[in-house]
């Protein structure tokens, strides 16, 4: 696998979690992109606000945990359910190219965006050709 | 040197198809409808249904939550006509910036339209919508003339 690849481990997380906690944990859909400066991770976590998200890095594993807080409307009875509301979690293994000190995250409209800058020594540099 | 791996736009589509084939087979063998679960396990419906909705009802109206993470409220149209609600618009329709390579694209992107049949005629002028944290909540009251009326029995 490529050096800069942010590999996914969420299968283990999803399988492991229900045995230790009494609730189901869902893996959010993510987009992962990269340019010469940073890796960008975008995750759909509908129903979660800024306070409901936790992004942690431990031993080169980035963990996204979030809890959706959507109150059902008062005085109404459920009629149909196409999706569940609860907890999200997904783990990503970071490569050594990521500068873990500089990771930034923000939430807007139920979307989490994590920016993972690359360390100076691994950034792609354009070499000027003398001549 | 960095090695770049480019993933197909939706690397999971092959699994989705396998899953759908498998559930079709199960249906054929058992005659029972199988619950079709999305890859994340959160969705009871196939991924081709967008946006996913949860619905609540009461005597005088209905409330619909639709998951539209990342949508710009300006890009979402809500239309209520008679007993039909139509949500349409676009989400995440952003192409990769220059020099940006995608490794993984799982989030739905593009245009969508979904029409829902309501159990009553709606009071279109009184429909309310609220978009919060990626969830659109539409409250649709039942039209006045359709509301059940209590008949007083004369003595």
Summarize this structure briefly.
The complex is a heterodimer of chains A (131) and B (155). Chain A is mainly beta.
Topology record:
The complex is a heterodimer of chains A (131) and B (155).
Chain A lengths: L6 E2 L1 H11 L4 E2 L3 E5 L3 E7 L8 E6 L2 E7 L9 E5 L5 E7 L10 E5 L2 E7 L14
Parallel strand pairs in A: 2-8
Antiparallel strand pairs in A: 1-8, 3-4, 4-10, 5-6, 6-8, 9-10
Chain B lengths: L12 H18 L22 E6 L2 E7 L8 E6 L2 E8 L9 E5 L4 E8 L10 E5 L2 E7 L14
Antiparallel strand pairs in B: 1-2, 2-8, 3-4, 4-6, 7-8
Kindly describe this structure.
The complex is a heterodimer of chains A (131) and B (155). Helices cover 8% and strands 40% of the residues of chain A. Chain A is mainly β and 131 residues long. The N terminus of chain A is likely disordered. Chain A is elongated. Chain B folds into two domains: 48 residues, no CATH class; 97 residues, Immunoglobulin-like, CATH 2.60.40. Chain B is elongated and about 80 Å long. With 155 residues, chain B is mainly beta. Chains A and B meet through β3, β4 and β7 of A and β1, β2, β5 and β8 of B. β3 of chain A pairs antiparallel with β5 of chain B, so a sheet runs across the interface.
Outline the low-pLDDT stretches of chain A.
1-18
Count of helical stretches of chain B: 1
**Cα-to-Cα separation, first versus last residue of chain A:** 37 Å
Distance between the termini of chain B: 93 Å
Q: Round the mean pLDDT of chain B to the nearest integer and report it.
A: 77
Helix content of chain B: 10-25%
Unreliable parts of chain B: 1-14, 31-39
Taken in chain order, the helices and strands of chain A follow as: EHEEEEEEEEE
Which term fits the overall shape of chain A? elongated
Q: How many DSSP E strands of chain B? A: 8
For the record, the CATH architecture of the largest domain in chain B stands as Sandwich
């Amino acid at each position: 696998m490529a050096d800069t690849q942010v590999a996914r481990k969420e299968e283990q997380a999803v399988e492991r979690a229900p045995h230790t906690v009494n609730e189901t944990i869902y893996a959010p859909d993510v987009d992962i992109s990269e340019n010469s400066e940073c890796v960008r991770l975008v995750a759909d976590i509908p129903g979660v606000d800024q306070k409901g998200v936790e992004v942690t890095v431990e031993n080169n594993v980035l963990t996204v945990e979030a809890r959706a807080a959507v109150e059902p409307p008062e005085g109404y009875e459920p009629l149909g359910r196409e999706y569940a509301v609860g907890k999200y979690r997904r783990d990503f293994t970071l490569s050594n190219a990521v500068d873990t000190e500089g990771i930034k995250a923000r939430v807007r409209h139920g979307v989490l965006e994590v920016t993972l800058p690359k360390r100076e020594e691994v950034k792609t540099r354009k070499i000027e050709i003398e001549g | 040197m960095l090695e770049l791996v480019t993933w197909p736009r939706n690397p999971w589509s092959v699994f989705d198809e396998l899953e759908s084939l498998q559930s079709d087979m199960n249906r054929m063998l058992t005659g029972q409808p199988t619950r079709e679960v999305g890859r994340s396990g959160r969705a009871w419906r196939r991924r081709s249904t967008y946006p996913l909705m949860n619905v609540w009802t009461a005597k005088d109206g209905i409330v619909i939550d639709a998951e539209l993470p990342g949508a710009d409220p300006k890009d979402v149209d809500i239309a209520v006509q008679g007993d039909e609600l139509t949500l349409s618009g676009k989400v995440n329709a952003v192409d990769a910036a220059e020099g940006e390579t995608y490794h993984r694209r799982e989030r739905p992107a593009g245009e969508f339209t979904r029409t829902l049949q309501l159990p009553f005629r709606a009071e279109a002028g009184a429909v309310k919508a609220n978009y919060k944290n990626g969830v659109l909540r539409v409250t649709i009251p039942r039209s006045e003339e359709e509301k059940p009326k209590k008949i007083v029995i004369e003595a």
